[in-house]
Every structure is written in structure tokens, then in C-alpha cells.
Design the sequence.
């Protein structure tokens, strides 16, 4: 089998194999790029009264646990804290994908909203399907996509190379 035929075959079948995962990554990637533009994807960041964070961790936990939607009883229910000193806000992201924004000075709850972007992120990296899917699904898809890029570049430049060789031989 000629290299050109093998290359086309690899390119064709590789494209079919990774079509759905790549489409999922492309669509979710677009949504993640514009997530701050749409409040339904990611809640907008509020502004606190001061840029000097002064509340304690205990105050953060107490204020967050007063929000029933967040379902926070202890620190194990909290995924992460995102401190934005320039806006005077502490974003508390819960394991249940709720975000509670607190004033960094007073501990007042400024906003409570569901973060749809976390669901989109889990689809994007494959962890929605299985925690280790980013290794057994997305890594092979990335490797195949790299081969598709290489074979595509070869297929693209092959006619130009042949034409260049014919012109040299004349």
C-alpha cells in the first residue's frame, strides 16, 4: 500500500472515530469562552463595599451555611473559595455547583446563583462521564487529532510538492 493511500485511510477513519468527542470539545469550548458574557452560564461578579478582605474563615462558613440552596453544613461541602480583593468579594463555590458571593468585609451574602459552567467544564474535559475519562477518552482523542493534523498537512501540501518536483524535472 502506498504511503499516500495509507495516509488518506488513517485520516478518514481517524476523523470518523473522534468526530463526536471533538464536536463536544469544540461546542463546550465555545461556551466556556463566552461564559462570562451570559449570566446563565456563569453568575456575574458582584462588588463589595471594601477592597480589604477582613472576614474570617468561620464567618465565611457561617454566612454560606445560611443559604439553603448551597447545602453547606461544613467545609467538606465547599469546593473552593475565590477571593477577588479588587471587587471586595469572596466567591464560595460549593460541591453542589452553587456559588455564594459574600462581601469580603461584612460577610453579607451578595448573590446566590447556580454555576452551569461547571457542568460545561465537566463535559469539556470528559469527567462528566467518568472521573478518569480525561485520560482514557480525551487523551487518545487528542493523540488521534494530532495525527489527523499531521496527515491533513501532508494531504494539503502533497499536490504542491508534486507540482514543484515536476517543475524542477523539466
Sequence:
Amino acid at each position: 500500500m502506498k504511503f499516500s493511500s495509507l495516509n488518506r485511510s488513517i485520516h478518514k477513519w481517524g476523523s470518523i472515530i473522534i468526530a463526536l468527542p471533538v464536536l463536544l470539545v469544540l461546542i463546550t469550548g465555545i461556551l466556556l469562552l463566552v461564559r462570562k458574557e451570559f449570566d446563565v452560564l456563569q453568575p456575574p461578579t458582584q462588588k463589595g463595599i471594601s477592597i480589604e478582605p477582613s472576614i474570617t474563615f468561620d464567618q465565611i462558613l457561617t454566612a454560606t451555611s445560611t443559604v439553603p440552596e448551597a447545602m453547606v453544613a461544613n467545609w467538606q461541602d465547599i469546593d473552593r473559595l475565590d477571593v477577588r480583593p479588587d471587587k471586595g468579594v469572596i466567591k464560595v463555590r460549593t460541591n453542589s455547583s452553587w456559588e455564594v458571593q459574600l462581601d469580603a468585609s461584612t460577610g453579607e451574602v451578595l448573590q446566590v446563583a447556580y454555576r452551569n459552567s461547571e457542568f460545561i467544564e465537566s463535559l469539556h474535559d470528559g469527567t462528566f462521564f467518568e472521573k478518569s475519562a480525561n485520560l482514557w477518552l480525551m487523551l487518545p482523542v487528542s493523540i488521534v487529532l494530532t495525527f489527523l493534523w499531521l496527515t491533513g498537512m501532508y494531504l494539503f501540501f502533497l499536490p504542491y510538492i508534486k507540482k514543484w518536483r515536476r517543475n524542477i524535472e523539466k
